[in-house]
Amino acid sequence: MGLVAIVGRPNVGKSTLFNRIIEERHAIVEAIPGVTRDRLYATGEWNGKRFQLVDTGGIVPESEELFDKAIREQAQLAMDEADVIVFVVDGKDGMTPTDQTIAAQLRKATKPVILVVNKCDNAAGDFNSSEFYALGLGDPYPLSALNGRSTGDVLDEIVKDLEDDTSDDDERLKIAIVGRPNVGKSSLTNALLGKDRMVVTPIAGTTRDAIDSVVTYYGEQMVLIDTAGLRRRSQISEQVEMYSTMRTARAIERCDVAVVVIDAEQGLEMQDKRIMNQVLEARKGLIVAVNKWDLIEKETRTADDLVKKIHGDLPNMEWAPVVMISAVTKQRITKVLEMAKAIQQRRLQRVPTHELNEKLIEILEKTPPPAVRGRDLRINYVTQVKVAPPVFAFFLNHPALLPESYKRYMERQLRGLYDFEGVPISFLFKDKHKE
Length: 435
Prior knowledge:
Oligomer: single chain
Strand order of the largest sheet: 2-3-1-4-5-6
Shape: globular
Strand content: 15-25%
Radius of gyration: 24 Å
């Protein structure tokens, strides 16, 4: 998918526009400059075209404060990465010197720049937006991100320059190698390819770009998406996480199965959990690969112990398989490919409706959901409505009252009946009376 970056000075309404386009309150919106510190990413869609949207912090070109410099670098990286840049200015404030400085930078861009004049709530605001022609970025688009006025015109312009998403046309298994910097992602990719396709050094974040490679395993082609964060020689550390997050988000969006690489010596860290949650939210297959296993003393730490600890730290992802590998010694690296292939087959499996109702409903009837607010809950019917990722629809009398604890019980029972190892599954709950 194409990447669209929203940029501009602080407090012009970038996050409000971001939320308007993705149709949900995702970014923090406050009338205080500088609230958006990190890039936020989400998927948008318009006229059948899907794209990734990135919201950047407000650019203050002349400031030497560390925080402003960090945001400036982050925004620049987002612009470098983007296919389309949306430059937001404030129609109520009018044109400012900061807008002019940013515009001068954008005029050098080799990609489409769309000039959006926000806070134009009426025709008078539209008329006043004409002053922004002076920025030399073409026609300004007046709109109100807050109430949605004229946002459709901007979206038409955004998708006009984006290619159709053809990722579904490629039926090869796509595996994303993701994880924190310096856990061995590129080393694993090189080991699987049997050659040094990536630059590998002990410096975290050596790989600047996500690079696709094709590996042939027993006659079957698979696409490996290698990612890593960028670490420049800079005092500003925020940009490292930003670039890594951008790469990781795009790789997860494109893949079928994500291999989250963690460091055997460091164990599971908070950033590892965040990445796994990204995979879970994207409903992609998941493998946890514990790299550098050759450096662990087997007498002091067994594989079983580590697997139990990882699953204990990930109570909502106990279904994720864990494999101990070494990219250096090539220990069990081909198992990663075998597991990814098996997980994709599970993502594509469809359980017959009659089986689900004979087996799963029978189990649920023996242990029915508890009564809520004096009402008995009864699940009447279940069917699988989607694959890759698997989605199951349950029909019952009071779907809004079904407790979360019972939903988890339902998932455990379904996983007990069918092999969905490595696969996140989704449930829909519908009112039987409305269908």
